[in-house]
Amino acid sequence: MKCSIASDKFRRKFAEQIEEICGERISLCYQCGKCSAGCPVAYAMDYLPSQITRFAQLGLIDKVMKSSTIWICASCQTCSVRCPRGIDLAKVMDALRILAKRKGIVPKEQIAPLFDGIFLGSIEKYGRLNELSLITKLNMASGRPFKDVSLLPIMLKKGKIKLKPQKSNPGKEVRYLMRKVEKLESK
Amino acid sequence: MARIGVFVCHCGTNISATVDVKKVAEIAKGFPGVKFATDYRYMCSEPGQDLIQKMVKEHNLTRIVVAACSPSLHEKTFRTCTQNAGLNPYFFEMANIREQCSWVHDDREEATLKAIDIVKLATAKVGKNNPLQTTFIPVEKKVLIIGGGISGIQAAIDVAFNGFKAVIVEREPSIGGRMAMFDKTFPTLDCAACILTPKMVEVNQSDLIKLYTYSEVEEVSGYVGNFKVKIRRKARLVDENKCNGCGTCWQRCPVRLPSEFDMNLGKRKAIYVPFPQAVPNVPVIDQKHCLYINKKKCGICKKVCPFEAIDYEQEDEVIEEQFGAIIVATGFTMFDHSIYGEYGYGKYKNVTTGLHFERMLNSSGPTGGKIVRPSDGKEAKKVVFIQCVGSRDEARGMPYCSRLCCMYTAKQALLLKEHNPEAEAYVFYIDIRAAGKNYEEFVERVQDEYGATYLRGRVSKIFQRNGRLMVRGCDTLSGTQIEIDADLVVLATALIARPDAIKLAQMLHIPYDQNRLFTEAHPKLAPVETVTTGVFLTGACQSPKDIPDTVATASAASVKACGLLSHEKLPIDPQIARVDVEICSGCLACKEVCPFGAIEKEEIVDRVTQQKRWVAKVAPSLCNGCGACNTACRPGAIDLDGFTEEQIFGQIESLTADKGNER
User: Fold this and answer.
1) In sequence order, what are the residues at sequence separation of 6 or more whose Cβ sits closer than 8 angstroms to the Cβ of residue B109?
2) Which of A14, B254, B586, B629 sits a CA distance of 20 to 30 A from A179?
């Protein structure tokens, strides 16, 4: 029933963590709802983007981390460009995802984190994205192996995907980026 | 026989779209006494007015009817026009065929018939109009200001700046009012005393301003230009002329009492000045608690006073003065929140109000600027502010928004954080209303920079758990019920009218609303005037106002008052009630119904019996010509100039005569 909000100190620390990762101050939010109003994927979220900000303000970390919202966010940045308080909410969502990964609270049913992992793995290996392996691995991992099979011949015919991975040399830059991502996530 | 001219206005298409104005003018030509009738696009325009004046000369007209808009809009215009045409200005009537006809109908034929009837009524009346003359009354060049808070102080300064005399009557021993109790003011965080005391000193030093502190207005009679006011100067038991405020008396007084100025958080003596910067700096003896007055013991103050200023025998004194105008600046009082049992006021010592907190913040206040728990005097680190206590609550409080609680709560949260950066501030609010210059920015700073936690929702309950004060509320934005353990709870109680506001309103003949707030003459266009000419409003007695708004209305009211005083004589509308003393039976039923207190009793010698008897007498400057007395008068002794019975019955006859024939 009752939910004691987190202590002042705890909330300040949480807000500081977010600010450290993405440079955005959630305390600026005055809950106008502009972000939620314009979010194109809000229909699929369990909480609206503005509610997530509110939970974050009150330090209700569990609610934030366990919500589908932060994973469903497509980072389209509609909210960011429209926010009257100048908060880049897409960045905040990024930060919340990072924090969730750090704490290891990633809901099992979420595909987005899987996708991110496989996507980055492909980049690391080939220097660029291999669509076929991404689709296959993702569908296998999420337990839906035949999900996109019917699309395969059409996409092959149109040259949208190749059977053989196209390699470009994953040079210094890519390795540097990968290290940075790892560092950010494991901090 | 009157020669009537009828002028029908198109008002662009406002009238002509719905009313066949040409037909109205054509038919009006056939009404009794009408010698000329025409229509014109805009009668109020200069060519329109020229047309009237030209036709008066050409057709030798003696009465004018303009069929156009509401008299409240252009009656004055056409009265002047009639006067410029060489006629008595009251030989004019306005037929309202816009607001009362074209605007409210859409059937052109019916509307035209109605317009014809309206014009007919006006022509029937105007033929019976009497020439009326504007009369004048002299003006006493002095303003009475009731209330010595920031509102009254500013008004007095502005009146004096305009070169007129002002008298402030203040109930408390010192001027300064509520503002003197505040610590800092939003949104600039100016110290309240630093910006108020120079004004208090200015008032005290001005040759044009007289201060009656510890005094109350007891009776008001008369009318604009000549108000007669009785003022009770309560016995201070200290001679204001002898005392120089040295302070020896209150230092030596043995009686310690809770200080009202410090919201009972501090102490004062039985002889005291409410606060160090008091103006005048003359103490007053609390007769209820003084040992000498009650038990004939002590008498120390009298013994130690080096100026022999203490006078136990002093008595209340009632003085009478005359004023040309009155400015009401009586301010507000705080809502009694004990009605909210769930907030535990009275039960828990650490549940206080905004004013208590304000005194605690003040470095010269009872705690020396420390925020403490009243229960044990220990520092309060976790403070919960609750807004809208008594405001926006039709069921148990006031229906209105008190307007400044959002801002002062934000300020108090900020000051709490400044006093102690480790302190936590929680604010329960419904909406944040920060509609003022730099207000929104201020609240945002408090939330973002100072980290005050704003929770959107009312508090349901304050209770005690394990010796801690628990506040249970809700945050509707996150949809969570919330419990906070608090050291101190600060209630932002509603600003309400003073309990004796009605008494003063009746004294001044000014209306008040369902919340006992004084009513302005017009909410938009006459915000500081009242319907009683010469009585003006400023500050929170009209509606809750913050300091900037209060000062603005004070200046506005003083300009209006000085405007009146700048006339040697004031004109009064001659369309007022007239008593025929031959018929008047002296029953004074008229006096009972008059909302303006314009009717007095007068003794005359009866012409026939040569005996003295009472009759009603109308004070021309007070009468607004409403006609209430007219209808209340049983013998029919009262008539209303401009709306005489002859005129009204003439109108009725003009309509019914025809209608009878039709049937």
Assistant:
1) none
2) A14
- The distance of A60 to chain B (nearest Cα, Å) reads 10
Identify which of B206, B142, B207, B199 has the alpha carbon closest to the alpha carbon of residue B175. B199
Mean pLDDT of all residues in B527-542: 95
Which residues in chain B are contacts of A6 at CB distance < 8 A? none
d(CA B253, CA B284): 12
**Average pLDDT value over all residues in chain B:** 94
Number of H helices, E strands in chain A: 11, 0
Instruction: Give the CATH number of domain B133-234+316-332+513-569; options: 3.40.50.970, 1.10.4200.10, 3.30.565.10, 3.50.50.60.
Output: 3.50.50.60
Range B622-629 average pLDDT = 89
| CATH number of the structural domain B333-496 | 3.50.50.60
**Geometric angle at alpha carbon B518, from B512 and B521, rounded to 5°:** 90
Tell me the H-state helices in B316-453. 354-361, 405-419, 439-448
The model's pLDDT over B70-102, given as tens digits with 9 standing for 90+, comes to 998 899 999 999 999 999 999 999 999 999 999
CB contact under 8 A, B482 and A4: yes
Instruction: Assess contact for B148 and B274: CB atoms under 8 A.
Output: no
B71, B94 contact by CB (below 8 A): yes
Virtual CA dihedral for B556, B558, B561, B566, nearest 10 degrees?
Answer: -110
Give B4-132's CATH code, choosing from 3.40.50, 1.20.120, 1.10.3720, 2.30.29. 3.40.50
The pLDDT assigned to A35 comes to 95
Q: Which residues pair with B96 in a beta bridge?
A: B68
B3 touches chain A (CB under 8 A): no
Helices assigned H by DSSP within B224-286: 248-252
Considering the entire predicted model, what is its pTM?
A: 0.81
Taking residues B592-609, what's their average pLDDT?
Answer: 89
Q: What is the residue-wise DSSP string for B132-196?
A: ---EEEE---EEEEE--SHHHHHHHHHHHHTT-EEEEE-SSSSS-TGGGG-SEETTTTEEHHHHH
Q: Where are the domains of chain B?
A: 4-132, 133-234+316-332+513-569, 235-314, 333-496, 577-641
Domain ranges of chain A: 8-103, 112-186
The size of the A-B interface in CB pairs under 8 A is: 47
Model confidence band, residue B342 (pLDDT cutoffs 50, 70, 90): very high
Give the pLDDT confidence score for residue A2 in this predicted structure: 52
Three-state secondary structure call for residue B324: coil
Q: Which residue of B has its CA nearest to A33?
A: B477
Interface with chain A: mutation pick from B383, B440, B453, B477, highest number of A CBs within 10 Å:
B477
Element (H, E) at B485: strand B480-486
The CA distance from A147 to A151, in Å, is: 9
Give the DSSP letter of residue B608. Answer: T
Cβ of residue B447 closer than 8 Å to a chain A Cβ: yes
pLDDT value at residue B658: 64
Candidates 3.30.200.20, 1.20.120.790, 3.30.70.20, 3.40.190.120; correct CATH number of B577-641? 3.30.70.20
Confirm whether B333-496 and B577-641 share one CATH topology. Answer: no
Provide the pLDDT confidence category of residue A185 given band limits of 50, 70 and 90. confident
Q: What's the whole-number mean pLDDT along residues A52-64?
A: 93
Residue A8 with chain B: CB contacts under 8 Å: 424, 451, 453
The SS3 call for residue B460 is strand
**How high is the ipTM of this complex?**
0.79
